[in-house]
Design goal:
Number of helices: 7
Number of domains: 1
Largest sheet: 2 strands, antiparallel
Order of helices and strands: EHEEHHEEHEEHHHE
Radius of gyration: 16 Å
Shape: globular
Helix content: 25-40%
Structural class: alpha+beta
Strand order of the largest sheet: 1-8
Distance between the termini: 8 Å
Number of strands: 8
Length: 196
């Protein structure tokens, strides 16, 4: 972000809550909003219109949601705990993207997942970008937490721990960011307003 203010409106919060988080296996791997159904259906422009009440300007609002998502992950708050949610990836095409809960067959319909303080410490550092090729918000797959190219070092720095000897745990934690982010987008609290 370049210091510009981002307008996080009630409508954009409602759309963020509907975003479908998948896993992009490119680079280091990172969460990505599913390009085919960013808000849960393949008629994403209608999904936007249902929230905003405006049949025009869906592409502009979709891009604005991507910007609002940057502020949302940095400023929204959520308490650690166990959450259950309907898995929006269950019925979507996962040939290009993944669901970390998919075990060879189909994705489960319901997900129960423990969001930990570690997940919550990492979420504000997710390097949210606009994926021009797919026209959706995504976490930068090359450097998901910003900083250098070493994923374990970047994560450990944000968690205030040493990476040495923790690589396996940090890799597991990194892959858990898909469900952690899905839960965060659905349940975290944020007030409408201007954010940097």
């Amino acid at each position: 972000m370049n210091g510009q203010e981002i307008d996080v409106t009630l409508e954009r919060i409602a759309l963020i809550r509907r975003l479908v988080v998948a896993w992009n296996g490119e680079g280091q791997g990172a969460p990505i909003i599913h390009p085919d159904a960013p808000y849960g259906s393949t008629a994403w422009d209608e999904d936007i219109a249902n929230v905003t009440g405006d049949d025009e300007g869906a592409e502009e609002e979709h891009r604005a949601v991507g910007e609002a998502l940057k502020a949302f992950v940095r400023h929204a708050t959520l308490k650690a705990g166990r959450f259950t949610y309907h898995n929006p990836l269950e019925k979507l095409d996962l040939s290009e993207f993944e669901d970390v809960f998919r075990d060879g067959g189909r994705s489960p319909a319901q997900i129960t997942f423990d969001v930990t303080p570690e997940h919550l410490a990492l979420i504000p550092h997710l390097a949210v970008i606009w994926d021009e090729a797919r026209a959706v918000p995504a976490v930068e797959a090359a450097r998901p937490y910003g900083g250098g190219a070493d994923l374990a070092e970047a994560m450990a720095g944000h968690l205030g721990i040493a990476a040495a000897g923790e690589e396996g745990r940090l890799d597991r934690l990194h892959h858990e960011m898909q469900p952690a982010l899905q839960i965060f987008l659905r349940y975290a609290d944020i007030a409408p307003g201007l954010y940097r």
